[in-house]
Amino acid sequence: MAGKEATVYIVDCGSTMGERSHGRKETNLDWALQYVWDRITSTVATARKTTLVGVVGLRTDSTASAMDHDESYSNINVFQPIDQILMPQLRRLRDELVVSSTPAGDCISALAIAVGMIVQKCKKLQYARKIVIITDARGSVDAEDLSKIVGKMNADNMELVVLGVDFDDAEYGFKEEDKDETKAENEAILQTLCNDCSTATFGTLAQAIDELGTPRLKSTKPVASFKGLLTLGNPQEYESALAIGVERYPRVMQAKPPTASKFVMRGDMTATQPTQSTATMSGSDEAPNDGLASVKQARTYQVKDEEAAGGKKDVDFDELSKGYEYGRTAVHISESDRNVTTYETTSSLDIIGFVDKSKYERYLEMDRSNLIVGNKNDDKNTIALSSLIHALYELESYAVARLVTKDNKEPRLMLLAPNIEPDFECLWDVELPFAEDVRSYKFPPLDRVVTVSGKTLTVHRNLPSDELQDSISTYVDSMDLSTFGKDDETNEAEYAAMDETYSPMLHRINQVTKHRAVYQDAEPPPPYEILTRYAHPPADLVKQSQKSLDKVIKAADVKKVPPKARGKRFGRKGREEKPLSDLDVGALLASDPKRNTKRIDPRNAIPEFKQILNIGSDDVSAVQDAVKQLKNIMFEWIKHSVGDSGYGKAVEAIRVMREEMNDLDRPGPYNDAMQELKQKLLKEELGGERREMWFLVRRNKLGLLQQSDSSESEVTEEQAKLFLSAKL
Amino acid sequence: MTDLPHRDKPAEPSKYGGGPEEEEEEEDDVDDSAYKTVKDAVLFAIDVSESMLQTPKVVVPKKPDTALSPTVAALKCAYALMQQRIISNPNDMMGILLFGTEKSKFQDGDEETGKGGLQYPHCYLLTDLDVPAASDVKLLRAMVEDEEEASKLLQSSTEEVSMANVLFCANQIFTTKAPNFSSRRLFLVTDNDYPHASNRDARNSAAVRAKDLYDLGVTIELFPISHPDRGYTFDRSNFYNDIVYSATPSDPDAPAPLTNDIKSASSSAKDGISLLQALLSSVASRAAPRRALFGNLAFEIGPGLKISVKGFILLKRQEPKRTSYIYLPSDSERPQVAVGSSTLMAEDTARSVEKVEIRTAYKFGGETVSFTEEEMAKIRYFGDPVIRIIGFKPMDMLPIWANYKHNTFIYPSEEEYIGSTRVFSALQQKLLKDNLFGLAWFIPRKNAVPTLAAVYAGAEKRNEEGEQVMPPGLWLKPLPFADDIREPPETNSIKAPDELVDAMRVIVQQLQLPKAIYDPSKYPNPSLQWFYKILQALALEEDLPDAAEDKTLPRWKQIHRRAGPYVVDFGDALEKHYADWQRENGSKVHPTANGAAKRSTPAATGGAKKVKTEDGGDTGPTDEEMRSAYQKDAIAKFTVASLKAFLVAKGQSATGKKPDLVNAVTQYFETRMETD
């Protein structure tokens, strides 16, 4: 948890802030506010009670502060006393921070007020104190009494940040030509002020606004995920066992983007409420009611009951108890036996052996990594652990250990890898898979082809030619990122190192929510450049490697498969599927007297339907007849279904019909059949209430074949959507 | 029984499932498997012919498995598979059909007299195709463990069973019990390579019925058995090549599907490998239907060079099943699983809400900030699904800690781009040879959160029997962003002197795991195994087992024997060096303060106080202090921090408010007292 913070923003609202300088489209104040809003909304977003914000307007039309009786404090308005800041305050501030009609008001007086505010609020308590001044330095900057203020600030450990509109900054590389003389003087005074403060930053606003695009990292206080002994051998049984006191901390922990909650319009809201509104802040007059009611989940439970209608009956939640399913058998476990399924363990970290680094496969890593350091309270642990770390490092080995983080937690096997930095040593740990976690899927080799007939080939269309292998090798080498980046001193460095990459979704959501909180009617801004920087290879590198890439493309000769040809029917036409032996099953089928009648046996409906289509897919009437037969069989299944017993078969028939008609590019018969099905279902003509069957059709997305599926279809996207609704 | 692979539900490409992780990604790309129920149904068809019931002549003593008849071995294998699938595929179906039996039985208990017997003579449906129930497991166990029970059923018929009938029987079982399943497989175990040897028409009818199964979408997986001791080798070309279909037909140069590698198992023990073991391993390799995590994703190796790949999850943590709600009827019928369904409701009026009404909003500063659906779609859009390589780096720039979830395996597919395989192969070989990885921008599905991933090569691995244990391909490792990387805590860095490192090195060298590798198949998950053992015992109403086997425990004895003396040496050296070190450093500066001061540059304020809380907070009160407080009923006098530290040190949960902590400590002593 972050510590307590108190920050006062002094925002210059003087009339000169209404100018538009250096070709910028927005006024200097609006430009400056980009920074202010970003900082303030970041605070609002945390909704933390211990992060306090005050806002002081400088060179405002009105005057309001603890010192407002004193003339030298006029045109200074404390818009927000130091306090927690939430949406209503933000809304108010948005209306208050506007360009005034006066150039008058003294910057140092505002600083004095800010210092006073902090002193009064924070007293001697543990706060991180900070004052941020944003100004164009074209008002008055009265340096009298400054040393007293600086003295107080330093005594109370207040940090000062001065951000100036178009201030000169050699480091950032900005110098304002034809600078106003007063401004130049004032800049100098503010610079001196910063030099006098023990912690201070003096900079030009442009830089601060640039840096808004670089996300800020949240630091989290490390919390140990395990404390105990790292053992080698069993200290309880053997004298020869080794035990080192260690602590384990998370190394990687995914920072998730904030999750959206589900809402609906409040019940008392009328339907005329514009749906696209961002009901959050429609002006300061409106009550903070955002017109949204949150959505809850209500759960109901059913069990099978043959006597009940639909084969199921509702049961009360109170009638249920906890248990497990073993296959389809319900296993009830009484309250007192709740723990029998728990495998009893004792918290521990035991080394079971060592493995070679060179033989270790990286894909075995299963979960978030952690790090292990010696117990802080006893340096003997640190020394002992250090010898293990160095021994592993020198032997190029890893340890495998069994970890139980707490009593009765399930054991995990971990890989422990040494890490040695100049001032820091630890073991990294990652989880390894158990036998049950490995799925044995098999895939053909990539460097040779073993054919159906048992030959091993090294030249084959699925294998790269020497030309392709060589050109890819050259291309890969030319796209090396290990030295493509630049470090702070513009030396060669790793490009896209992990600590320079930011979670795109996390910061994108933060960016747009903060933006929307202030600018409710504006379109969300485009993502910060850094969030999409690594979506593509760096342009310079691409240019540099273009020649070698062209060679790869030529040698690879990759061809896109045209979309329509992707269907199963592609390459199937005129070539009957055959078993391994090449037996002509088609001929056998054709000579089968029962199948010659083209009457589909309902028991063998799907295969026979497919077989009819396979023989006579060019015969329009044969296809139509087959679809009709299958349709009628499907209707019978639904009609005679006890509860939902026949629905699965019916869904399968629809699916097959849909696939086959799509492959044949004949949407008509299928669409007609589906229209008829919907009619009959909703009119309860297939053995009564069959809403669940219709639900299954919808859930399986077995809608009409529309124009995007087949050019032969007359069904528009709109019609297809309508069809899948529950209405006729 | 742990030889079979385990697999939980696939990362569903379908619409109607998915864990919480998938919630945000619900608008997945539609692929064709989405139309079908993503479930697997396996029907075991086991031949019960005269020769299948013969026990082998040569029996390896001490290996009772080698004395099993092929039929019983197959049943044992099915029994193992059933138990395993209850764990790994709790929603998938399985059934067992015996054929060539004297008795006949089809669905609905129409034994002998019913129409089932007439329909499918000499087919005996032992357990119907369904999610297995405890009773199925019991029945099957009786068959394999009780010879008398088994011999009642395992009698072969005198007349030859019609293979066409067997196949149609399977057809009907799949049609009625597993409609619309994405995966339906018939596991056929037999030693007869030439049924209906003298009846061509009967063979042709079987071929027609096999085609029906093919058109129904049922795959036949053949498990042939040879009898070397009788001089009999199973020959597929006699009959079964007319029955079995290959996924990639007709092209003689087509790469053979790996399942064809599977040789016929031998009924007599060869090299000490029993038929059962051979069957188990070949069933294991086919037990899991291969399901793609994503299909035909664009893999952009350079601008203008796209191929298509499929993604598979080969490694994923298998968790025990979550609890369900069980309904126990008052009239003491069998307990039933209650199926929950949820409806969305507005909090203010409790009216139910349609999905279209729902808007998403973010909590912000005590209120909400909302976006329209189109805005949200635009905000979340970072481009179409892709794996796009943006450059390459050496593997040593991929630190071992850069991991937060399982890695995904990718393999080329020719379905979108012809030539994908050769390009993929060239890249895989290059990366493997030069130890490089590609850095990629990775969006697995439509609207999925983009990540950066390392694309690195994995070599093919085969075991001693030549069977593939890890396929060749590329792996995707999602990389953490700067936001995800945690800073280490402050520590004192004290490097061990060389003598100590040397002493430790000897120990490490003594204790290498076999072949110096980590082999996951050697380590079943002890808590998962225990969980299902207990659950099985409860479901079958048997006594609970009292001890569990835990192969993850270190081999204490071996460690002691092999490294014991060296550890003692190391301990002595450590004591000596630590004493030296203390003399030099210890007494002068408090180590913690020293370390902290070095690292934290600004804000040295309150240092003294910090050290104090840290010292107190880490260890907490001693056992003695806490015990005496417990006896005086004065635990509450400790601070929350001390209580927490004490509890953490004891491996107890340390969450909640002070009263909770006091309770936890009290409870700790109460249970301790009993055992003391």
TrEMBL record, chain A:
<keyword id="KW-0238">DNA-binding</keyword>
<keyword id="KW-0234">DNA repair</keyword>
<dbReference type="InterPro" id="IPR016194">
    <property type="entry name" value="SPOC-like_C_dom_sf"/>
</dbReference>
<dbReference type="GO" id="GO:0016787">
    <property type="term" value="F:hydrolase activity"/>
</dbReference>
<comment type="similarity">
    <text>Belongs to the ku80 family.</text>
</comment>
<dbReference type="InterPro" id="IPR036465">
    <property type="entry name" value="vWFA_dom_sf"/>
</dbReference>
<dbReference type="GO" id="GO:0042162">
    <property type="term" value="F:telomeric DNA binding"/>
</dbReference>
<dbReference type="GO" id="GO:0003678">
    <property type="term" value="F:DNA helicase activity"/>
</dbReference>
<dbReference type="InterPro" id="IPR005161">
    <property type="entry name" value="Ku_N"/>
</dbReference>
<keyword id="KW-0233">DNA recombination</keyword>
<keyword id="KW-0547">Nucleotide-binding</keyword>
<dbReference type="GO" id="GO:0003690">
    <property type="term" value="F:double-stranded DNA binding"/>
</dbReference>
<keyword id="KW-0779">Telomere</keyword>
<keyword id="KW-0539">Nucleus</keyword>
<dbReference type="GO" id="GO:0005524">
    <property type="term" value="F:ATP binding"/>
</dbReference>
<dbReference type="InterPro" id="IPR006164">
    <property type="entry name" value="DNA_bd_Ku70/Ku80"/>
</dbReference>
<protein>
    <recommendedName>
        <fullName>ATP-dependent DNA helicase II subunit 2</fullName>
        <ecNumber>3.6.4.12</ecNumber>
    </recommendedName>
</protein>
<keyword id="KW-0378">Hydrolase</keyword>
<keyword id="KW-0227">DNA damage</keyword>
<comment type="function">
    <text>Single-stranded DNA-dependent ATP-dependent helicase. Involved in non-homologous end joining (NHEJ) DNA double strand break repair. DNA-binding is sequence-independent but has a high affinity to nicks in double-stranded DNA and to the ends of duplex DNA. Binds to naturally occurring chromosomal ends, and therefore provides chromosomal end protection. Required also for telomere recombination to repair telomeric ends in the absence of telomerase. KU70, of the KU70/KU80 heterodimer, binds to the stem loop of TLC1, the RNA component of telomerase. Involved in telomere maintenance.</text>
</comment>
<dbReference type="GO" id="GO:0003684">
    <property type="term" value="F:damaged DNA binding"/>
</dbReference>
<dbReference type="InterPro" id="IPR002035">
    <property type="entry name" value="VWF_A"/>
</dbReference>
From TrEMBL, chain B:
<keyword id="KW-0779">Telomere</keyword>
<dbReference type="Pfam" id="PF03730">
    <property type="entry name" value="Ku_C"/>
</dbReference>
<dbReference type="Pfam" id="PF02735">
    <property type="entry name" value="Ku"/>
</dbReference>
<feature type="active site" description="Schiff-base intermediate with DNA; for 5'-deoxyribose-5-phosphate lyase activity">
    <location>
        <position position="36"/>
    </location>
</feature>
<dbReference type="GO" id="GO:0003690">
    <property type="term" value="F:double-stranded DNA binding"/>
</dbReference>
<feature type="region of interest" description="Disordered">
    <location>
        <begin position="1"/>
        <end position="33"/>
    </location>
</feature>
<feature type="domain" description="SAP">
    <location>
        <begin position="635"/>
        <end position="669"/>
    </location>
</feature>
<keyword id="KW-0238">DNA-binding</keyword>
<dbReference type="InterPro" id="IPR006165">
    <property type="entry name" value="Ku70"/>
</dbReference>
<dbReference type="GO" id="GO:0000781">
    <property type="term" value="C:chromosome, telomeric region"/>
</dbReference>
<dbReference type="InterPro" id="IPR003034">
    <property type="entry name" value="SAP_dom"/>
</dbReference>
<dbReference type="InterPro" id="IPR036361">
    <property type="entry name" value="SAP_dom_sf"/>
</dbReference>
<comment type="similarity">
    <text>Belongs to the ku70 family.</text>
</comment>
<dbReference type="InterPro" id="IPR016194">
    <property type="entry name" value="SPOC-like_C_dom_sf"/>
</dbReference>
<dbReference type="GO" id="GO:0006303">
    <property type="term" value="P:double-strand break repair via nonhomologous end joining"/>
</dbReference>
<keyword id="KW-0378">Hydrolase</keyword>
<dbReference type="GO" id="GO:0003684">
    <property type="term" value="F:damaged DNA binding"/>
</dbReference>
<protein>
    <recommendedName>
        <fullName>ATP-dependent DNA helicase II subunit 1</fullName>
        <ecNumber>3.6.4.12</ecNumber>
    </recommendedName>
</protein>
<dbReference type="InterPro" id="IPR027388">
    <property type="entry name" value="Ku70_bridge/pillars_dom_sf"/>
</dbReference>
<keyword id="KW-0067">ATP-binding</keyword>
<keyword id="KW-0234">DNA repair</keyword>
<feature type="compositionally biased region" description="Acidic residues">
    <location>
        <begin position="20"/>
        <end position="32"/>
    </location>
</feature>
